Amino acid sequence: MILAAGRGERMRPLTDHTPKPLLMVGGIPLIEHSIHRLRAAGYGDLVINLGHHGEQIATRLGDGTRLGVSIRYSREPPGALETAGGIRQALTMLGADPFLVVNGDVWCDHPLERPDLPAATQAHLVLVDNPDHHPAGDFALEDHAVRLSGPMHYTFSGIGWYRPALFADLPPGRQALAPVLCDAIAAGRIRGEHYRGTWIDIGTPERLQALDQGLM
User: Fold this and answer.
1) Which domains are seen in the chain, by residue range?
2) Pairing relation of β-strands 2-4 and 99-103?
């Protein structure tokens, strides 16, 4: 699942008339870079949630045939559903097995190989070094177990594999992901890894421009 329903407030005015996933990087929309990486890693069936100007995304990508994948869309109401709410709404499309979710506004060269999820594990998160704009990080990591506290905190990359059960009991509607993860982490049900490769949170026009120039 590619998360693509956000408003992109920090990217304004670029996102006033264009959804953030369709902003151009290296000559093609950001979301197409994500799709190319997913296809290369063996993911052929994709779900994309749509919100702000979402029909532009559906028009551009269609059913995915042009990009060598199959795409279905989960359309969200005005204001969108936030991450956990969006995933919960799309569960019927995602199936009964663990699934990968990637933020539509990150650039990362993680190979996206499926991790081993023990039966008691509800998610596997990819954590990265803290960027300058988020120095405190999000979670600690101890022997592959994600913790709420520890000597070293890392930033959640926006890349994670999840079991449907993590979201199945949530009520429909707007739900943030952080509280869902924190509850599961406190219960010892989340594992993760520290990825040291390239990761960029493309959250501002300046970071978008820097990435675009770096690809030239």
Assistant:
1) 2-214 (3.90.550.10)
2) parallel
Q: Which residues of 67-93 are buried (b: 16+ CB within 10 A; e: fewer)?
A: bebebebbebeeebbbbbbbbbbbbeb
Better pLDDT: 203 or 90: 90
184-208 b/e (C-beta count within 10 Å ≥ 16 → b): bbeeebbbbbebeeebbbbbeeebb
Instruction: For residue 167, give the 3-state DSSP assignment.
Output: helix
pLDDT digits (tens, 9 = 90+) for 17-68: 888 899 888 889 999 999 999 999 999 999 999 998 899 999 999 999 999 9
- pLDDT surpasses 80 at 216: no
Mean pLDDT of the chain: 93
Q: How far apart are CA 88 and CA 166, in angstroms?
A: 9
Nearest Cα residue to 89 out of 145, 215, 173, 11: 173
Structure tokens at 35: 């799709």
Scanning the structure block, which residue is given the tokens 């956000």?
6
